[in-house]
Amino acid sequence: MNLAVTVAEIRHFLREQFPQTSIEVESVDAQGAWVRQAIGHAHLRPGGTVSGPTMMATADCAAYVVLLSRIGLVPLAVTTQLSINFLRKPAADRDIRAHASLLKLGKRLAVAEIRLYSEGGEAPVAHAVATYAIPPR
């Protein structure tokens, strides 16, 4: 599968359009996209675990990145649905890495599957599915 844009182009786009995000794009290839959220004190909840909103934002960003890698830099592609299952406690002292792959890419909708990991861990800490609406061209 050919990529519509490079990792460098996606990184530049996110810096320009979403300067508030601290999520970094690691890689994009035919199998999907990897993103990373550095974890600090602001990302933790009581009990010493990464907060749900942090993991949801990371999953959503990973889905957006994999979609953009296929359709190009379309700022108005938007999340229409996101569901997440928290599987195990993520490490409070490790970054969260997420891998997203597309299950379906249509003209108007795309569905992505996302697995989130504590850096260095083999078992996912969460699993998400996101649907994106693609604006008409």
UniProtKB/TrEMBL annotation:
- Alphabetical list of Gene3D superfamilies matching this protein: Hotdog Thioesterase
> Which GO terms fall under molecular function for this chain's record?
1,4-dihydroxy-2-naphthoyl-CoA thioesterase activity
Q: Which Pfam families match?
A: 4HBT
Write out the GO cellular component annotations.
cytosol
Q: Which residues form the signal peptide?
A: none
Please name the SUPFAM superfamilies in this protein's record.
Thioesterase/thiol ester dehydrase-isomerase (SSF54637)
Domain Thioesterase, residue spans: 47-122
Q: What is this protein called?
A: Phenylacetic acid degradation-related protein
**Organism expressing this protein natively:** Aerosticca soli
